[in-house]
Design brief:
Length: 208
């Protein structure tokens, strides 16, 4: 059972969004080709879904600016611009993404007091989203991940997949993902590779 996990391909992380990832919209046509390729038995998407005034927003902490480090629930936390607020256009999946062919859309980051980079659990690793149980119930043996952003939500989702889905083959699709900084992307890919996550491109999947 092969599954594709699309991470946070939302307006907020694409050009014009509140936390735009450089060239974030370039992943959409590649994701669509993967969706339509027939390579997967199951397609899942995660969606950042923050309440207004979320603790990871710089605006929630007087004197703090976006991209400064602060403390949230006792842990160091990057402060972000307000983004992907529930019910706003910023939080919607990209309009060109083939959402009608996605089997499950899972929302994350709803707890005011802790961020949730991973599609599997909050950053404090206490609250889980239910994705791991769902994939186990479906009998998933191979999981490919891609989306936004490589150096945050994609990386943490991939690492959590290894821990929470033991025995599952996990791969990162590099050309179907974009990151916030080149150095961050390079470090994330190296960390994923060092932990045994396969690094592939969409052509490796669609042509196979």
């Amino acid at each position: 059972m092969k599954a594709l996990l699309l991470i946070d391909i939302q307006n907020g992380f694409c050009p014009g969004g509140n936390l735009a990832v450089p060239d974030g919209d370039k992943v959409v046509p590649i994701a669509n080709r993967l969706i339509q390729s027939g390579s997967y038995d199951l397609i899942v998407a995660s969606q950042d879904w923050h309440p207004e005034g979320h603790g990871s927003f710089a605006s929630s902490h007087p004197g703090k600016q976006p991209f400064e480090l602060h403390v949230l629930s006792g842990k160091e936390q990057m402060m972000w611009p307000d983004h992907c607020v529930q019910g706003t256009r910023d939080a919607e999946l990209h309009p060109d993404l083939r959402v009608q062919e996605i089997d499950l859309i899972l929302q994350k980051g709803e707890n005011h007091h802790v961020d949730s980079y991973s599609a599997f659990r909050d950053n404090d690793q206490h609250a889980i989203t239910g994705l791991s149980d769902f994939l186990k119930e479906q009998g998933v043996t191979d999981l490919d991940l891609c989306g936004l952003a490589t150096d945050y939500c994609v990386k943490f989702s991939a690492l959590d997949a290894l821990q929470m889905l033991p025995g599952t083959k996990v791969r990162f699709i590099e050309d179907a993902s974009r990151g916030i900084t080149p150095d961050g992307v390079a470090a994330a890919i190296e960390e994923m590779r060092a932990n045994g996550i396969g690094i592939v491109n969409s052509a490796d999947i669609i042509s196979s």
